[in-house]
Amino acid sequence: MAYKNNLYALALLTLSPLSMAQDWNGTVLGFEAPPDPVLGEMLGIRKILNDNGFNYNLGYLNEIAWNGGGYNHDSHVAYIDQFALTFNQDLERWTGIPDARIEGNIVNRNHNDDLTTKRVQDPRVNFNDLTQESWGGQSITRLGWLTFARSFDDRRLTWRIGMMNKVQTFDQIIPCDFQMLSQCGGKSANSLTWNNWNVHTWGTTLAYKVTPTVTLKGGVMEQNPNASSRSHAWSWSTKGSKGVLLPLEIEARPLINGLPGAYNLGVVFTNAPQTDLYRGKSGGAGATDPEGFAQHSRTWFMYAGLNQQLTRHADDPNRGLSTSVSMSLADQRSNYMHQVYAASLRYRGLFDARPEDWIGFGLTWIDMSSQYARNQRYMNSLSGASDYSDPAYHPVPGHSLNGEFYYRFRPVAWLELQPGIQYWHHPGGVSRTQDAWVTELKTVVSF
Question: What is the pTM of this model?
């Protein structure tokens, strides 16, 4: 499983040209235009590329996290970073195919150091959040996507096909500005059947603009548990595929009292066998695998969200307050995160002297699957372990509450610095784990 980063230019590179109404300005919602890059025009090379239809964004991101408290009280400074290249090549000028383009994403990740699993959370339970959202997929360079896209019907219908990632089409209404994973973007990744950002699988999607503000989206995508493996980083093989995903989403980008908003509701069905979380289950929904877990022949997942600007600065439409709310609901027979709810407030340009600075605050509530908790109790009954301090004990998760506060500023146009602080209550949903404070620093460089 891999995770999103905060290169907002993704939306500008991958969304269809009519994905936003003409007077819909998403800057205060977190979708800023790419900043001036540190390399500038590269002696005219960038202009030559743009004139020939090649547009790209190259960025560097690092995320640092330091704990106080948590499962392991020993303080640790965890560091991860990545380089990401996202690009489009316009094909219309060369082929005459309306709005045809090649889309690509390549991500190089390094320093696979995750504070969540090393310090904050009990390693005997599955993690349900991350202190560094871009951790995942190991230290590796991999293809995030390589797709062909074009439009029909005066650009109302956009078709995409190839080795793709869900973020190209689905769940695009909330940016990934927070460093905590549960506050980064929407909640569609919680289905645990597809991946974010830098992992590709085969598929095809359609997005149709019913009205200038309402879009219907659907697709057929490969469901491949091996997609995030090292062997699949640059592979076009479907080896390991278990079935298909059928995502459906409705998205609206209206103006409410003259202020922009983005809303969505999505559902994902899969026919790929999913393993029941309870080892003691027998019969019922499906055949039992050799390890004693029942298999479900089909499962579902639902996600929804909103991102609405609330206020506008008197003399600057790019300054103001916005709020976002997102949620997910999963089949708790096979998904250990049953319900996730996240809410946040952002303000762009709070201070007149710093009109492009951001301040953000978010809270996330996560309810773990009762079937997963049931299995933990069952495993304890088999081992006879009843003491939390016993290494053989399987902690029984319930719910957790996580929060984050950050401030982001640009000392120069191409550099963003974002210090912040996180608070973890019941990390991993385990009440016996000590609460933790996490100090953070995220840095973004645009080339």
Answer: 0.92
